[in-house]
């Protein structure tokens, strides 16, 4: 990135943000240039929220009341869970997926 003046930034053509999910009002969450972090105490449900969100983005599947725009590549970091627990939660998050969605997750999520 190069430093630029306020005038240059204001006059620069910038494409609209590309969101992973949209709500019914047309607003989006999680832009393709966003980096998100979920934090909280042990046992508060961080993984039970974030992992299904990542799976939905990778599969191209709606999440809660947000519509997924299209399947995306996702990288998910976890620094708290045992590998067996992560495996169990990933299987739980993938349980409702169709075979096509499972293939997309296998391809798109790391």
Structure in a nutshell:
By secondary structure, the chain is mainly α. Helix content is 38%, strand content 9%. The longest helix has 14 residues, at 46-59.
What does this structure look like?
The chain is mainly α. It has four helices and three strands; from the N terminus they run H-E-E-H-E-H-H. It has helices at residues 6-11, 46-59, 83-94, 99-108; strands spanning 19-22, 28-31, 67-68. A three-stranded antiparallel β-sheet has the order 2-1-3, with no helix packed on it. It is globular and about 55 Å long. The model has no long low-confidence stretch (mean pLDDT 92).
Q: Which oligomerization state do the chains in this entry correspond to? A: single chain
Element order, helices and strands? Answer: HEEHEHH
Strand order of the largest sheet: 2-1-3
By secondary-structure content and strand pairing, the structural class works out as mainly alpha
**Strand fraction:** 5-15%
Query: If you compute it from the alpha carbons, what radius of gyration comes out, rounded to the nearest whole angstrom?
Result: 17 Å
How many DSSP E strands?
Answer: 3
Biggest sheet descriptor:
3 strands, antiparallel
Spatial gap, N to C terminus: 27 Å
Mean pLDDT: 92
Q: Indicate the overall shape.
A: globular
DSSP summary: helix tally: 4
Query: Uncertain runs with pLDDT below 50, 5 residues or more?
Result: none
Which helices and strands appear, and what pairs or packs with what?
Layout: H1 6-11, E1 19-22, E2 28-31, H2 46-59, E3 67-68, H3 83-94, H4 99-108
Antiparallel strand pairs: 1-2, 1-3
Helix pairs in contact: 2-3, 2-4
């Amino acid at each position: 990135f190069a430093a630029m003046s306020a005038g240059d930034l204001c006059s620069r053509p910038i494409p609209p943000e590309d969101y992973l999910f949209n709500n019914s009002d047309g607003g989006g969450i999680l832009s393709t240039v966003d980096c998100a972090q979920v934090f909280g105490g042990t046992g508060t449900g961080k993984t039970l929220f974030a992992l299904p969100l990542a799976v939905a983005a990778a599969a191209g599947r709606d999440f809660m009341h947000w519509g997924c725009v299209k399947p995306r590549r996702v990288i998910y970091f976890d620094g708290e869970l045992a590998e067996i627990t992560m495996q169990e939660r990933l299987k739980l998050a993938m349980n409702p997926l169709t075979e096509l969605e499972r293939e997309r997750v296998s391809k798109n999520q790391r």
